[in-house]
Amino acid sequence: MTVHAITSHRRRRGLSGALALAVLLAWAPTGGVEASPASFRLKETGVTVEFPPLARVTERDDSGTTWNVVGWQNGGLETVFDDFRLCLTRQGWAWNTVLVREQGSGKMALVVAQRGRNRLLLMLWESGPGVCGFSVGEDRDEEQ
After folding, report:
1. According to the model, what pLDDT value does residue 89 have?
2. In sequence order, what DSSP letters do the residues of the chain get, joined into one string?
3. Residue 11, beta-bridge partner list
4. What pLDDT sits at residue 141?
5. Rounded distance, CA 125 to CA 81, Å?
6. Strand partners, 99
7. Backbone phi, then psi, for 80, in 5-degree steps?
8. Residue-wise pLDDT tens digits, 76-134
9. 10 Å Cβ neighbour count for 104?
10. How do 69-74 and 94-103 pair as beta strands?
């Protein structure tokens, strides 16, 4: 049932706005969203990387073949970018490479961050009005 269907149903049945909102919140799938603070542990060194307080993790994959963590955070790209930058630099991560690109109707950013021998890849993209998706992965170089 979509939000439109719920509001249409509310009009037909005469449900109050508060009741319709409660139904929507109770029905809305969480998709495995984790409570904050979200984090993940680097496989190679065991270092834990904390994410900004508003970041929500929806998927994890430790196979080493794709992004380790995928999630979302409310806010525009600049806001979410600044939240991740502040959070990671407080943990000692240096932002080595930053690529920002406008693509169609949205923007995306790719960051390579480093802390000692650890390298982290962070991709941020606008997934809708006021919402950004993020993917984080461990960059494991065979020469390290």
Report:
1. 96
2. --HHHHHHHHHHHT--HHHHHHHHHHHS--TTPPPSSPEEE-TTT--EEEPPTT-EEEEE--SSSS-SEEEEEES-HHHHHHHHHHHHHHTT-EEEEEEEEEETTEEEEEEEEEETTEEEEEEEEEEETTEEEEEEEE---TT-
3. none
4. 65
5. 9
6. 110
7. -65, -40
8. 999 999 999 999 999 999 998 898 898 777 889 999 999 998 999 999 999 989 999 99
9. 7
10. unpaired
Q: Domain limits of the chain?
A: 1-29, 31-138
pLDDT recorded at residue 35: 47
Is the alpha carbon torsion for 39, 113, 140, 110 positive or negative?
Answer: positive
Q: Which residues touch 10 (CB under 8 Å, ≥6 apart)?
A: 17, 19, 20
Who has greater pLDDT, 133 or 143?
133
Which pair of tokens denotes residue 61? 């994959």
What number of other Cβ atoms are within 10 A of residue 49's Cβ? 22
